[in-house]
Design brief:
Length: 488
């Protein structure tokens, strides 16, 4: 539309001049009409073009056109010996006023526009800082990699005004991208996403392979799109931008933003996306490191537990099974990922204190004497002390120390009762009893599962927490796929 403003202003000046000449009026008497194209030009046109309109209006109220008027038989308007006068015959002041108004109006408009743009940039920058701050909080919250990517996707989608936004993670072996947050994928795209998006196509592939931001105003005329053009068509977007999520020269994935219609990605928008991607890289990298440390700590705990189990061949894999049982139960209780991991670790290490129990007592087949039983009971205290001395095991101390408490308060070491017993200890107590009953021992064969369940239900409310017994048996009997995923 802007291309018609200048011709329209020119026509306005000519129409006003023609109207004055045909009606026989003096230009200066009707000169106020020229302010209309002069002011509008200052507001709508670039400075140079608005000055042209102001000068043309000034020419229309000056002697410059008098020769033409005389030739047409209209007569000269400006023959006063005092052209600076403010009367009808004066002509110097009016052109100067046109130019001055054009310059002033244009300057005021530019200042207001610049101020509005600065306010918009400030608001946008404030929103960006808010987003980066929320990502910082997520980094400090200890989220898993998958949860971090889901939250990043949600935050970026809220922040960007486009059609959609998301994080693509590269699978270098399969040479495809996959999406963690599949809930955000349109139903018509599920099949394509499950197959994996090509890692060498579109702006996402280009950004990943070259390690630089890539944009496309219209993906359907972009040579980088082949299979991805079908994805764009189904998803309903036309423009797209992709920023590599890179940390220490390793590209972890790609941040993608799309728009329904054609869209030019300006420098400020690209810079904002790059800052978000930089923060996202830190979040994902930290989550990966936490996951590695989590696996390392769990593997360390399992190795330690297996070293203790090796003293008694009849308890082989007991701690590993307990770890899985505890994780199933914690997941069924809808505990947080951090709490589930604590349950797994605590279950694996629940008998770590037996490292101080002599072999002749630990492996004794006959009934233990009161003194020997007192030594066995000390493993809760010894295990707790071991956990308290290792920083990453401090969280499992309540489980290891209290896993022999009874719900009715007749357990040890502290005789706690009911819900004063830590939740993890109540879970491990049930899992420990179940595994002990359903596993072979030196003094008996494993019980049938139905018999073990009956004993647990019979002891619910006295030896064990009845709610935990119900949850445990339900989880073990029919673990849902998502629960099984939690223990692998």
């Amino acid at each position: 539309m802007k291309f018609i403003y200048f011709p329209a202003a020119l026509c306005s000046v000519l129409i006003i001049d023609l109207a004055i000449d045909t009606t026989g009026g003096l230009p200066n008497q009707l000169a106020h009409l020229y302010y209309i194209p002069v002011v509008l030009s200052a507001l709508l046109l670039r400075p140079r073009l608005s000055i042209v309109i102001a000068l043309l209006a000034g020419v229309a109220v000056s002697p410059v056109l008098d020769p033409a008027r005389t030739a047409l038989g209209i007569g000269a308007y400006y023959d006063s010996p005092e052209p600076w006068n403010l009367g009808a015959s004066g002509w110097i002041v009016r052109p100067l006023a046109f130019v001055a108004i054009s310059l002033l109006a244009g300057r005021l408009l530019r200042e207001r526009t610049a101020k509005a743009a600065a306010e918009t940039r400030g608001a946008s920058r404030g929103e960006e800082l808010g987003l980066l701050g929320r990502i910082d909080k997520m980094i400090l919250s200890g989220s898993s990699e998958e949860d971090a990517i889901r939250e990043l996707t949600r935050l970026v989608r809220e922040f960007t005004p486009g059609h959609s936004a998301g994080v693509l993670i590269a699978d270098r072996k399969r040479k495809t991208f996959h999406i963690i947050d599949t809930d955000s994928v349109a139903p018509e795209l599920v099949d394509l996403v499950q197959q994996g998006l090509p890692i060498d196509e579109g702006v996402a592939g280009w950004a990943f392979l070259h390690g630089r931001t890539a944009t496309s105003r219209n993906v359907f005329v972009d040579a980088r799109y082949e299979k991805m053009a079908e994805v764009a068509r189904r998803a309903g977007y036309t423009a797209a931008a992709a920023v590599p999520i890179t940390l220490d020269d390793v590209t972890l994935g790609v941040l993608v933003v799309t728009y329904r219609g054609e869209h030019d990605f300006g420098p400020e928008e690209v810079a904002t996306l790059e800052r978000i991607a930089g923060q996202a890289a830190i979040a994902i990298s930290n989550a990966k490191q936490r996951e590695s440390l989590r696996r390392l700590s769990h593997e360390t705990a399992i190795v330690l537990a297996e070293a203790i189990e090796s003293r008694d061949p009849y308890t082989g894999d007991h701690c590993s099974r307990l770890s899985r049982f505890a994780s199933l139960t914690a997941t069924a209780l809808e505990l947080s990922p951090t709490e589930i991991e604590t349950m797994r670790l605590g279950a694996a290490l629940h008998d770590v204190g037996k490292i101080v129990v002599p072999d002749h007592i630990l492996k004794k087949l006959d009934k233990l004497t009161p003194d020997e039983y007192a030594i066995i009971k000390q493993h809760c205290y010894s295990g707790g002390q071991i956990c308290k001395r290792v920083s990453f095991l401090e969280a499992v101390y309540p489980i290891v120390y209290h896993h022999h408490e009874r719900f009715d308060g007749r357990g040890y070491p502290d005789g706690l009762a009911g819900h004063s017993i830590p939740l993890g200890a109540r879970i491990v107590a049930v899992a420990d009893a179940y595994d002990a009953m359903t596993s072979d021992r030196t003094y008996r064969k494993a019980m049938a599962q139905e018999q073990a369940e009956a004993i647990l239900r019979d002891g619910a409310g006295s030896q064990w927490d009845p709610d935990i017994v119900d949850t445990f048996l339900s989880a073990v009997a029919s673990p849902a796929p998502e629960r099984l995923a939690a223990v692998t």
